[in-house]
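Researcher: Let's do a round of design. I'm pasting the structure tokens now; please hold your answer until I've finished.
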């Protein structure tokens, strides 16, 4: 039995399960020292260390929105701005396979699982020595909702959430 439904016509994926890690949700580390991305596996105790994570730097988790991916603009612009500061470990959460156009309703439903897996990663960071006060979550569109929903799976709320979605109602 599969944990997802594949709506073949539009290639939409609707996740039914709630098990993390999930093959469609990936976390990558970027830092000023290592210009290439390194995938993080939270089930391997040394994956942060081997990826080049510096426990003395602040951390940012950047989450893209609907019909985006971690390696597309505007996410790359935000990532590179944090990297240029040289005092951040930059984590990009990618769930592009669960949020393609025109599959908005399945993408919206999938945010529950993405938030749960992102919260597990956040917990992995804090258990590895990162201070909760030094972890920011930056989200665009559905990514901003995921940043907010992560707190549903944490014993303490996150210190800082940055929403990059413009408020179109004020225009």
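Researcher: That's everything. Go ahead.
Model: Designed sequence:
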């Amino acid at each position: 039995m599969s944990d997802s439904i594949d709506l073949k016509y539009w290639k939409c994926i609707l996740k039914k399960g709630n098990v993390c890690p999930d093959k469609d949700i990936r976390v990558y580390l970027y830092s000023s020292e290592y210009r290439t991305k390194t995938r993080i596996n939270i089930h391997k105790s040394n994956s942060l260390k081997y990826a080049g994570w510096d426990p003395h730097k602040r951390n940012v988790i950047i989450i893209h929105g609907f019909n985006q991916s971690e390696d597309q603009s505007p996410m790359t612009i935000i990532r590179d701005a944090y990297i240029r500061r040289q005092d951040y470990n930059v984590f990009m959460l990618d769930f592009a396979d669960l949020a393609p156009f025109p599959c908005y309703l399945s993408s919206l439903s999938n945010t529950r699982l993405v938030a749960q897996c992102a919260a597990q990663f956040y917990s992995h960071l804090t258990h590895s020595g990162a201070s909760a006060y030094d972890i920011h979550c930056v989200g665009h569109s559905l990514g901003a909702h995921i940043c907010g929903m992560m707190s549903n799976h944490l014993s303490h709320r996150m210190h800082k959430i940055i929403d990059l979605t413009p408020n179109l109602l004020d225009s």
